[in-house]
């Protein structure tokens, strides 16, 4: 008699973009009980989640491995050992995907919030988890999170979660950090500034031949809400109006150009397309592809 399964297989999914292979890898799921939306009543959030057959707010935490031109990049690093036991599984799942952390040539960060950058190094020893990688990030990210005056203005929670933790994680890489403002940052990967959520928040456009994939970072946090209501801002947005404007711009771009998209908080693996409908948007998940 076979043993009854008691766990999922490793959450890994590969997608070919021309000559580039992108592998979605889950860091886990993060359940958040505190208020996360700025301009959406609690009852409206509950109704939207219920309509999507969800009874609470749970964020997928995704990262993406990019094999391009003989090199390996990792887009975002998950949560490391900072945000509890339901997340922080990125490196184990990378190994299940056949990629060891030491094989990563570059870590590309969409921004420096803890569910994206807290998996750079060990919290206790400051040992780099990706010993051979350079760190690549928008110039406004370290400029902001290492600014003591900005830190002093933050809430007590975000002084720790955003400023202190970002500094802890980035310091081991300061001697191998490269910053950008826009343009190609890795073979076939172009950064598109999308400030608002953070000062240097960036989307990454992957392009090979005629195929393109937009990995839009935190453009969408709650799929059940923000496609239909893109004006809904999040509590962690440093500039809520800027975040909403960036979201509309990227959603318009995705719909207009019929781009394949995914993001860090889309339901894993999150690949699909966007259409515009009466001032709102609709997400169309891509069918599972059996082969590359």
Summarize the structure.
By secondary structure, the protein is of the alpha/beta class. The chain contains eight helices and 14 strands.
Characterize the structure shown:
This protein has 292 residues and is an alpha/beta fold. The chain has a single domain, classed as Ribonuclease Z/Hydroxyacylglutathione hydrolase-like (Metallo-beta-lactamase, Chain A), CATH 3.60.15. Helix content is 24%, strand content 28%. It contains eight helices and 14 strands. The chain has helices at 42-51, 90-96, 114-117, 140-145, 148-153, 156-170, 223-226, 240-257, and strands at residues 12-17, 20-31, 58-68, 71-75, 106-108, 134-138, 177-180, 183-186, 189-193, 202-208, 211-215, 260-262, 272-277, 280-285. A seven-stranded mixed beta sheet has the order 1-2-3-4-5-6-7. Strands 8-9-10-11-12 form a five-stranded mixed beta sheet, with no helix packed on it. Strand 1 (12-17) and strand 2 form a beta hairpin. It is globular. The relative contact order is 0.16.
Features of the shown structure:
single chain; about 290 residues; alpha/beta; Metallo-beta-lactamase, Chain A; 5-stranded mixed beta sheet; 8 helices; 14 strands; globular
Q: Given the helix and strand composition, which structural class is it?
A: alpha/beta
How confident is the prediction overall: mean pLDDT? 96
Q: What order do the SSEs take from the amino end to the carboxyl end, as H and E?
A: EEHEEHEHEHHHEEEEEHHEEE
Put simply, the count of helices is 8
What share of residues are in beta strands?
A: 25-35%
Helix content: 10-25%
Give the C-level CATH assignment. Alpha Beta
CATH fold-level assignment = Metallo-beta-lactamase, Chain A
Largest sheet: 7 strands, mixed
* Count of discrete structural domains: 1
Order of neighbouring strands in the sheet with most strands: 1-2-3-4-5-6-7
How many beta-strand runs? 14
Rg, Å, rounded = 18 Å
User: What is the 3D shape?
Assistant: globular
Uncertain spans: none
The CATH architecture term is 4-Layer Sandwich
- N-C termini distance: 34 Å
Name the CATH superfamily classification.
Answer: Ribonuclease Z/Hydroxyacylglutathione hydrolase-like
């Amino acid at each position: 008699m076979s043993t009854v399964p008691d766990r999922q297989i490793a959450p890994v999914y590969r997608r070919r973009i021309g000559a580039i292979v992108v592998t979605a890898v889950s860091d886990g799921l993060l359940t958040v009980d505190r208020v996360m939306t700025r301009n959406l009543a609690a009852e409206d959030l509950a109704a939207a989640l219920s309509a999507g057959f969800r009874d609470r707010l749970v964020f997928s935490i995704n990262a993406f491995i990019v094999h391009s031109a003989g090199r390996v990049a990792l887009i975002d690093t998950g949560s490391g050992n900072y945000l509890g036991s339901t997340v922080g599984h990125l490196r184990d799942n990378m190994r299940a995907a056949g990629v060891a952390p030491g094989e990563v040539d570059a870590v590309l960060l969409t921004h420096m919030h803890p569910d994206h950058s807290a998996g750079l190094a060990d919290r206790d020893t400051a040992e780099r988890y990706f010993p051979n990688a350079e760190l690549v990030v928008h110039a406004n990210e370290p400029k902001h999170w290492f600014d003591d005056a900005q830190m002093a203005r933050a809430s007590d929670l975000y002084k720790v979660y955003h400023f202190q933790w970002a500094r802890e994680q980035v310091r081991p890489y300061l001697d191998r950090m490269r910053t950008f403002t826009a343009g190609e940052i890795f073979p076939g990967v172009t950064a598109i500034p999308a400030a608002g959520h953070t000062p240097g928040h960036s989307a990454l456009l992957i392009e090979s031949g005629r195929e393109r994939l937009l990995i839009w970072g935190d453009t969408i946090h709650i799929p059940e809400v923000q496609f239909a209501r893109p004006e809904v801002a999040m509590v962690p947005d440093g500039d809520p109006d800027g975040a909403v404007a960036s979201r509309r711009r990227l959603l318009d771009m995705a719909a207009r150009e019929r781009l394949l998209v995914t993001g860090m908080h889309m339901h894993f693996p999150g690949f699909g397309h966007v259409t515009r409908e009466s001032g709102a948007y609709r997400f169309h998940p891509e069918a599972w592809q059996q082969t590359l």
